[in-house]
Design a protein that fits this description.
Elements (H helix, E strand, L loop, with lengths): L2 H19 E2 L2 E4 L4 H17 L2 E4 L5 E5 L9 E6 L2 E5 L5 H17 L7 E6 L12 H6 L7 H4 L9 H7 L5 H4 L12 E7 L4 H5 L3 E7 L1 E11 L3 E2 L11 H21 L5 E3 L3 E3 L8 E2 L2 E10 L2 H22 L2 E3 L3 E4 L2 E2 L2 H14 L3 E6 L5 H6 L4 E6 L14 H18 L2
Helix pairs in contact: 1-2, 1-3, 1-13, 2-3, 3-13, 9-10, 11-13
Keywords: Hydrolase, Manganese, Metal-binding, Zinc
Pfam families: Peptidase_M20 (PF01546)
Cofactor: Mn(2+); Zn(2+)
Length: about 425
């Protein structure tokens, strides 16, 4: 199988994935559901055709192994997830697993044997929209879930427990209850997660691929509130109002100014107020809004920037209370620390790009990935982005197979050094 044959095989696998999980206008591959099951079956069958060793662990993680020279050495692991959001795109997650398979096929066809095993992982349940747990599948494989997780986590669409869905798919919830693991971070030489870029950066740069510098950490406030006073829209002058909408608008303005300063100083930051609403049981066109609910999502590669953002939120809450008589309550934060990608692996990918003649960008990942689980356990970790139009988590995902091929060339040129 030559390089083009590996890419053609990848194209056929993508087509099969789409057909098996089509849910117009996109695809749906629910965690521990039929779409995800079909995706794992398709990848497993393709791996067997390539001649890889195929296994599935008790929580459903698919392992496809190309043997290396030293079977006892810690392996290089390449992979991502195979679930997808409802009516989403065909490439988010799946592109990383398919790229690992295409790389193995290319190596095998060329008779190139790496120093150590190459393991391609198809990971379960990464998308948090199905179960309320970040990176559920990779955390389960590493034995990081609480023992009661199978019985307390419920899938959002069915209301049924993780244990029930696992049993339906033929997996063993006791594996989690007993704190067991199938992956050992001490026994992984490196983890590489190829993934479509989920924003417009590569499209705007006109480049097919990027080497990720790090995954942004985040501070999320899911249930913020601003509480002022409801009053008549025509009867209260500006000085006497405790307008919750204007208070949150002032907060938003301060956050954007903070963002501009960070940006001008070359510091990584993104800020989002994703939800903003007054109470429909109380609001009206002739009422001054006395309460607003909203959410906050703050992300950066730099822990110091996240700390500065938290300090700004505290200061703004005090200022708004003093100036406007509106109390801001951010609720309980959901912090996720940033994860820097491994310097040696990044250098190997950049050298691979140069050797392959592929121009690449270096950029941060704004979204979270299973790579965070691996990096958080001390596994040397890297990510390779593939250009993709129209973002992700929507039916319009548009990864061109030529860009996939370019990223595969980068990985092919780098894999010998990564496995060394």
């Amino acid at each position: 199988m030559d390089g083009d044959a590996a890419v053609r095989m990848a194209g056929l696998v993508f087509a099969a994935l789409r057909e098996a999980s089509l849910d117009p206008p996109g695809v749906s591959r629910a965690s521990y559901g039929p779409g995800e099951r079909a995706a794992h079956a398709i990848l497993g069958a393709a791996a067997e055709e390539v001649g890889l060793e195929v296994e599935t662990d008790p929580v459903g993680t698919l392992s496809m192994t190309l043997p290396g020279v030293d079977r006892g050495a810690s392996p290089v692991v390449i992979g991502s997830h195979l679930d997808a959001v409802p009516h989403g795109g065909n490439f988010d997650g799946a592109a990383g697993v398919v790229m690992g398979l295409a790389l193995a096929a290319r190596l095998k066809a060329a008779g190139q044997v790496l120093r150590r095993d190459l393991v391609i992982l198809g990971i379960r349940a990464e998308e948090m929209c199905w179960f309320p747990m970040l990176y559920l599948g990779s955390r389960a494989a590493f034995g990081l879930l609480a023992p009661d997780a199978p019985d307390t986590l419920r899938r959002t669409d069915s209301g049924r427990t993780l244990a029930e869905h696992m049993a339906e798919e033929g997996f063993d919830a006791d594996f989690i209850r007993q704190g067991r693991s199938s992956l050992d971070p001490a026994y992984i030489h490196a983890f590489i997660e190829p993934h479509i870029e989920q924003g417009p950066v590569l499209v705007e740069a006109g480049l097919p691929a990027a080497v990720v510098t790090g995954i942004r950490g985040s501070i999320r406030y899911r249930a913020c509130s601003a509480t002022g006073a409801w009053a008549h829209a025509g009867a209260v002058p500006r000085q006497g109002r405790r307008d919750a909408v204007l208070a949150v608008a002032a907060l938003a303005h301060a956050l954007e100014e903070f963002w501009k300063v960070a940006e001008s100083g070359g510091r990584d930051l993104v800020l989002t107020i994703g939800e903003f609403s007054t109470d429909p049981a109380m609001h009206g066109p002739t009422k001054i809004p006395g309460a607003v609910g909203f959410s906050l999502d703050i992300r950066s590669e730099d822990p110091a920037v996240l700390q500065a953002a938290e300090a700004l939120l505290r200061d703004q809450a005090a200022r708004i209370a003093a100036e406007r008589g509106v109390v801001i309550d951010y609720g309980t934060p959901l912090p996720v620390p940033p994860a820097a990608m491994d310097a040696r692996l990044r250098a190997a990918l950049l050298q691979g790009a140069e050797a392959a003649g592929v121009s690449v960008l270096e950029m941060a990942s704004g979204a979270g990935h299973d790579a965070l689980t691996f990096a958080g356990l001390g596994v040397p970790t890297a990510m390779l982005f593939i250009r993709n139009e129209h973002g992700s988590h929507n039916p319009e995902e548009a990864m061109d197979l030529a860009d996939f091929a370019a990223a595969l060339d980068v990985l092919s040129a780098a894999i010998g050094e990564i496995a060394a």
